[in-house]
Amino acid sequence: MKHETDTTVRFCETDAAGHVNNTSYFIYLEEARGRFFQSNLENYQTFGRFIIASTKCDFLSQAYFNQQLIISTWISKIGTKSFQFKHEIKAKDTGVSIAEAEAAIVYFNYEEQKSEPIPEDVRKRLEGQLVTS
Amino acid sequence: MKHETDTTVRFCETDAAGHVNNTSYFIYLEEARGRFFQSNLENYQTFGRFIIASTKCDFLSQAYFNQQLIISTWISKIGTKSFQFKHEIKAKDTGVSIAEAEAAIVYFNYEEQKSEPIPEDVRKRLEGQLVTS
Amino acid sequence: MKHETDTTVRFCETDAAGHVNNTSYFIYLEEARGRFFQSNLENYQTFGRFIIASTKCDFLSQAYFNQQLIISTWISKIGTKSFQFKHEIKAKDTGVSIAEAEAAIVYFNYEEQKSEPIPEDVRKRLEGQLVTS
Amino acid sequence: MKHETDTTVRFCETDAAGHVNNTSYFIYLEEARGRFFQSNLENYQTFGRFIIASTKCDFLSQAYFNQQLIISTWISKIGTKSFQFKHEIKAKDTGVSIAEAEAAIVYFNYEEQKSEPIPEDVRKRLEGQLVTS
């Protein structure tokens, strides 16, 4: 039920401290959510309808250029107008935890610039991906 | 006591949703912390000694290309080996809140790859910037 | 006649080689062109009408975290449907040349997805900024 | 003889014009060169010895979020202290050309901060990848 995607650290994602820059992790997390949406909501054309309201990342170990990372992504909570993603980033070779993260996603009407209840069909799809452990 | 820095949104920091991409806010926050360190710890050569352990950002309003933003940065808490930054991002013209954020910063020995107590002189400097409200 | 803009290198724009990553220079160049447009074409609402067709950058010296850079930008050539920018990036303190660049910009109809002749009024504005030396 | 690598456009690599931002292409090109080095020079530990001296990219068609791109990379010329990469970026599904690029790479002594002749063993490896057409 946890969606997994791979990425390999690009050189421009590192910084002069020699490791992956903190801002780069949010790139990986956004990509992981995009792939989650594609796998689970593709025909719903609803990706453009969601907006990120909050995100948090705990940096547990440093990552480095060319390192392969696995990002696990799942839905941990569903509310009326929003739901929550959780993420885990691990080193592919050793399994060491690199980061843990979460993101609050709101169903958003861009035309009227306000949040709206998640439609029933979308909610059902999301509920099918809920992981509560 | 709150340190302020300005930035203007670059075109490449926006995305196809027409607004500033969520990952770009972490670029602004890192820059704001760097300027805070420069203003308050320059002679301590300690910037390279800190590492970010966690960060969170709440996205309150969207921002757009060419918009001028003010980022306020202050220290909200100091522990033995770490301290916490808080940030507020506002639109320069209207004062509207764009984002609120925080970051946990750890005093880190890169050679031995472990955290260490913040040295007394650095702590004093940080305490001089503490804002508790 | 040469438009100048300043920037200070952000930490996330460096890489694990300890210097500014090559991709970051294109961020500075795009920002410099945006500011050039604002200074010289603001009321023409034509920024959205241009698209970049080609760009080249020669990296002459390395730049580093927190370094202040001056980016000079000028128009070096104007054709029927396009014009050319030239850029020079220098270290603000020493004047050392960091990079030289150019960019070909095409007047573009996004609706029809094709280039178009630059309108007369826009051309006149651009010609007023032409630097041929 | 042409090295191929795939990438899928990330959302944060697009901009408010709705397409891939010009700066993002240089991210793809750097990644492609890194993978080329890994495939062809891995045991030579020489990647850190090269520095980019110049790069140019012609943007032929726009690319969009989630599009799959193939980047072909090959060596087109080898000099005493430097060599030249060429790149072609195509849409994976249609084969449409998205961009053509090149990069001049210099063998660089970071300790002494100056270019040096490419060592004979490295040169031989590079020559084995030379594509002249």
What secondary-structure arrangement, pairings included, does this model have?
The structure is a homotetramer of 133-residue chains.
Chain A lengths: L2 E6 L13 H20 L8 E10 L8 E11 L3 E10 L5 E13 L4 E2 L4 H8 L6
Antiparallel strand pairs in A: 1-3, 2-5, 3-4, 4-5, 5-6
Question: What features would you describe in this structure?
Answer:
The structure is a homotetramer of 133-residue chains. Chain A has 133 residues and is an alpha+beta fold. Chain A has a single domain (3-127), classed as Thiol Ester Dehydrase, Chain A, CATH 3.10.129.10. Chain A has helices at 22-41, 120-127, and strands at 3-8, 50-59, 68-78, 82-91, 97-109, 114-115. In chain A, strands 1, 2, 3, 4, 5 and 6 form a 6-stranded antiparallel sheet that branches. In chain A, a hairpin with a 4-residue loop joins strand 5 (97-109) and strand 6 (114-115). The longest helix of chain A has 20 residues, at 22-41. The first copy, chain A, is elongated and about 45 Å long. The interface between A and B is medium-sized, with 18 and 18 residues. Strand 2 (50-59) of chain A pairs antiparallel with strand 2 (50-59) of chain B.
Beta-strand content of chain A: 35-45%
Task: Give me the count of strands of chain A.
Answer: 6
Outline the biggest β-sheet of chain A: 6 strands, antiparallel
Percent of residues of chain A in helical segments?
Answer: 10-25%
Biggest interface, chains and residue tallies = A-B, 18 and 18 residues
Low-confidence residue ranges of chain A: none
Which geometry of chain A do the CA atoms define? elongated
Instruction: Determine the structural class of chain A based on helices, strands and strand pairing.
Output: alpha+beta
Number of helices of chain A: 2
The number of domains of chain A is: 1
For this structure, the CATH topology of chain A is Thiol Ester Dehydrase, Chain A
- List the helices and strands of chain A in order: EHEEEEEH
Radius of gyration of chain A: 16 Å
* Average pLDDT over all residues of chain A: 93
CATH superfamily of chain A: Hotdog Thioesterase
Query: What is the chains' assembly state?
Result: homotetramer
- How far apart the termini of chain A lie comes to 12 Å
CATH class of chain A: Alpha Beta
| Corresponding CATH architecture of chain A | Roll
